[in-house]
Design brief:
This protein has helices spanning about 15-25, 95, 150, 170-175, 185-194; strands at about 40-45, 50-55, 60-65, 80-85, 85-95, 110-115, 120-125, 125-135, 140, 155-160, 165-170. By secondary structure, it is an alpha+beta fold. The protein has a single domain, classed as OB fold (Dihydrolipoamide Acetyltransferase, E2P) (Beta Barrel). The strands form 2 sheets. A 6-stranded mixed β-sheet has the order 8-1-2-11-10-9, with no helix packed on it. A 5-stranded mixed β-sheet has the order 3-6-7-5-4. A hairpin with a 2-residue loop joins strand 1 (about 40-45) and strand 2. The chain starts with 16 loop residues before the first helix and ends with a helix.
Length: about 190
């Protein structure tokens, strides 16, 4: 499975390559049943050449960037709003949100549409990797070397056989700075309040 064929409408269990390799190394069958309470399933994406993850239960869908409408007097990281099947959704450039240099949108760029509680928001990211399974016992608290501008948005770091993934705290990210839009409310109202 590569980033181009991630189907987020099917949230069924699927092993990723790193996990298959680890299970094979431990002489287990790769068709082992994975218990949901032992693993977190996250959508992995690249931002500023680092791997980040969002809980798959918070991800409504992933889309290619579309034209957006700029909203005056919003935070610098709010690119504007889009109309997605009748819903007006603000789009946040995560590079700018985290203090990285903005990147031009390219063929790999994607917008992750997040639905958390009563809110919808789109996060522009550099590239989608794939859906990862991370053992809950392999998730550690936020390390002290995480940059301060990102630290409050990180809920932990997941260790995988060949990679480390920074797991984002969507609830904390949505609390601050004009990135919230209620599913039933006005995007303009919330974007402007930030």
């Amino acid at each position: 499975m590569n980033g181009k064929d991630v189907d987020l409408f099917d949230k069924s269990l699927a092993l990723n390559a790193d996990m298959e390799e680890e299970l094979a190394r431990k002489n287990r069958k790769t068709d082992t049943i994975i218990m949901k309470d032992e693993y977190d399933q996250v959508v992995g994406f690249v931002l500023n050449n680092e791997l980040y993850g969002i809980d798959i239960l918070d991800v409504e869908e992933i889309i290619k960037p579309v034209d957006y409408t700029y909203v005056p007097n919003t935070k610098p990281f709010v690119m504007g709003v889009i109309n997605l099947r009748g819903k007006v959704i603000p789009v946040v450039d995560l590079r700018v949100r985290f203090g990285f240099v903005p990147n031009p949108i390219n063929a790999d760029s994607r917008v992750i549409i997040v639905a958390h509680n009563e809110y919808n928001v789109g996060f522009l990211v550099d590239k989608i990797e794939k859906v990862y399974y991370i053992e809950k016992k392999s998730i550690e608290p936020t390390p002290p070397n995480i940059p301060q501008n990102i630290e409050k948005y990180v809920k932990g770091v997941g260790k995988m056989p060949k990679k480390i993934i920074t797991l984002l705290n969507i609830e904390e990210m949505l609390k601050e700075g004009g990135s919230l839009t209620p599913k039933t409310g006005s995007a303009m109202e919330v974007v402007n309040n930030g």
